[in-house]
């Protein structure tokens, strides 16, 4: 049972590593955030399935992650329409 937690924790850490290393591109940052959200969802799902029988918390978490995905996708489309690429480092010139 602990192998599930270890696997999804490593999945979370790999998403965090990609988020830290590839911070220049907005799309890669969003994909790594989605992998972290997905790994946390699986950890919560395994934890609830072993200790509780109610999965209402998982459904709420999944709804919130879908809302986050839709918002980030709309920001990505707006960013590409305004500036032509998804590089985050070009915003240093604006400030």
UniProtKB/TrEMBL annotation:
Compartments (UniProt record): Membrane
Membrane-protein topology: Multi-pass membrane protein
Swiss-Prot/TrEMBL keywords: Membrane, Mitochondrion, NAD, Translocase, Transmembrane, Transmembrane helix
Presence of keyword Transmembrane helix: yes
Domain of life: Eukaryota
Catalyzed chemical reaction(s): a ubiquinone + NADH + 5 H(+)(in) = a ubiquinol + NAD(+) + 4 H(+)(out)
InterPro entries assigned to the protein according to its UniProt record, in alphabetical order: NUOK/Mnh_C1-like (IPR039428)
Recorded GO CC terms: membrane
Residues annotated as transmembrane: 6-23, 35-53, 59-80
Gene3D superfamilies noted in UniProt: 1.10.287.3510
MF annotations from Gene Ontology: NADH dehydrogenase (ubiquinone) activity
Keyword Mitochondrion among UniProt keywords: yes
Sequence similarity: Belongs to the complex I subunit 4L family.
Protein name stated in the entry: NADH-ubiquinone oxidoreductase chain 4L
Source organism of the structure: Curculionoidea sp. 18 KM-2017
Taxonomic lineage from the root: Eukaryota, Metazoa, Ecdysozoa, Arthropoda, Hexapoda
Name of the encoding gene: nad4l
